Amino acid sequence: MIIVMGLMMVLCVAGIGTGYFAYQRAAEPDRANPGVVVSRYVEATFNTRSDTEAKRYTCSSPAAITESGDLLDEIKGKERTFNVKIDVKIGDLETSTSGSNSTVAAQLRLWTVVNDLVQEQIQHWEFSLRNRSGWRVCGAHRVD
After folding, report:
1. Rounded to 5 degrees, what are φ and ψ at 78?
2. Stated pTM of the model
């Protein structure tokens, strides 16, 4: 009886441990590809506007990436002034990786619909990433 109870206890502990690690793996964002990380960072920063989500894809605080913050402030100001919603789409990603550093060049497309007319502004950006247990955005700057 004691052996059976001991065996059951071992199996329960092993099951809890396995469940915990499976949950952690499923809950972690995909940071295996620099382009995917930049896309998710842009979505979290400019469209979802969630510092909590953006932090999952950055080296430190999203606020440390000041040029992205400046663009977000500009977008928010235009939205207030003109009573519009601006969506940011990312495209034309080009990735260059050397060891644990990567650079992703991309176009940010700022879309606005005003009186049934779509207005688009295209900006060229460069994102620098480091592989720290997965790729993370450490810097961003506009290149045009």
Report:
1. -65, -40
2. 0.79
